[in-house]
Design a protein that fits this description.
With 312 residues, this protein is of the alpha+beta class. The protein has helices at 6-16, 67-79, 81-87, 101-107, 117-124, 132-147, 156-164, 167-178, 186-197, 203-214, 229-242, 248-254, 291-304; strands at residues 24-25, 41-46, 51-55, 61-62, 200-201, 259-261, 266-271, 275-280, 283-284. It has 2 domains: 6-63 and 200-304, 3-Layer(aba) Sandwich (Beta-lactamase); 65-197, Beta-lactamase (3-Layer(aba) Sandwich). It contains 13 helices and 9 strands. It has a 5-stranded antiparallel β-sheet with strand order 3-2-8-7-6. Strands 1-9 form a two-stranded antiparallel sheet. A two-stranded antiparallel ribbon has the order 4-5. Helix 7 (156-164) packs across helix 9 (186-197). It is globular. The chain binds glutamine. The site of glutamine (GLN) has 11 residues, from loops. One of its GO terms (biological process) is L-glutamine catabolic process. This is Glutaminase.
């Protein structure tokens, strides 16, 4: 089997670069359209072991939908499973991440799962705090802790850009208010959602978060649980089923480990008990996932035999 070395990772990255031409930088949030589509960077951290990085691994980008895993974990810690899943479902969907249609036609009482926009907006309403500032402070602290990076901050430009152009997300939220999933504080919930989507990270941060989840909620080599094991299990299962939007099934078959992507082109992945991986490639395909990023993960999965259901 292939051994992980710096040279190997550089090679995977170079071979995956052409795949960025198959995608385009997201432009529906104006600030994101300024990203360079040819950027490609990766960090791989073995649980309790070595860390390897290649390409544009120092590039910062915003969490976007990757934050959906983190808000879910905090909401679960705050309210428990029964309460969280009383307003959001647990089922994968073949619909796009921002679909409005199914809320009215099929789901009726709740969004499909916490990995689509409507589900994540509903989950935001479960995070405790007296006001938006306090709730955001709690989620930022939580992400700083689980990434091990105390310097993470909000990207003010992306936040303002999302807020200004967030009509689609507003329509999801107001529709959910109309069917009783959300209460009167819709604008506050949206504000919180826009803020945690706009936290700046690097692939190192994503790989560290992946590693913590791969280690079931404990920082490798330490004994304190930063997240409850049972909630990591829930969140990681949902990542596996629904973390790559309506390409989750194909990704599960071809790559085979839990991952969560975002429209800025980041992907946070984990191989349980083994490693965390962060990738950035801002050119995304028509289902919202980094085209070159997915190629990096597929190559790593094949070469290192990381697919969960492959004999390892
Ligand atoms: N902030 C983006 C939105 O709400 C996140 C979506 C995504 O990454 N798919 O539209």
């Amino acid at each position: 089997m292939q051994k992980i070395t710096q040279a190997y990772l550089e090679d995977v990255l170079q071979k995956s670069r052409p795949y960025s031409q198959k995608g385009k930088v997201a432009s529906y949030i104006p600030e994101l359209s300024e990203a360079d589509p040819t950027t490609l960077g990766v960090t791989l951290i073995e649980c309790g072991g070595e860390s390897y990085s290649a390409g544009d691994h120092e590039q910062t980008f915003t969490l976007q939908s990757i934050s959906k895993v983190l808000s879910l974990l905090l909401a679960l810690e705050d309210q428990g499973k029964d309460k969280v899943f009383s307003i959001v479902g647990q089922e994968p969907t073949g619909d796009p991440f921002n679909t409005v249609e199914y809320l009215e036609t099929e789901a009726k009482d709740k969004p499909f799962n916490p990995m689509v926009n409507s589900g994540a907006i509903a989950v935001s309403s479960m995070i405790k705090g007296r006001n938006v500032d306090e709730r955001f402070g709690r989620i930022l602290d939580f992400i700083r802790q689980i990434s091990g990076n105390p310097n993470l901050t909000l990207n003010e430009e992306v936040y303002q850009s999302e807020k200004k152009t967030g009509a689609h997300n507003r329509s999801l939220a107001y529709f959910m208010q109309s069917i009783g999933i959300l209460g009167p504080e819709v604008e506050d919930i949206l504000d919180l959602y826009f803020r945690f989507n706009s936290i700046d990270v690097t692939v190192h941060d994503l790989a560290n978060i992946g590693c913590l989840l791969a280690n079931r909620g404990k920082r490798p080599g330490r004994n304190d649980w930063l997240v409850s094991e049972k909630y990591v299990e829930t969140a990681v299962t949902i990542m596996f089923m629904a973390g790559m939007y309506n390409a989750s099934g194909e990704f599960a078959i071809e790559v085979g480990f839990p991952s969560k992507s975002g429209v800025s082109g980041g992907i946070m992945s984990l191989v349980p008990g083994q490693m965390g991986i962060g990738v950035i490639g801002p050119a995304i395909g028509n289902r919202g996932n980094s085209t070159a990023g997915v190629q990096v993960l597929k190559t790593l999965s094949d070469d290192l035999q990381l697919h969960l259901f492959r004999d390892r």
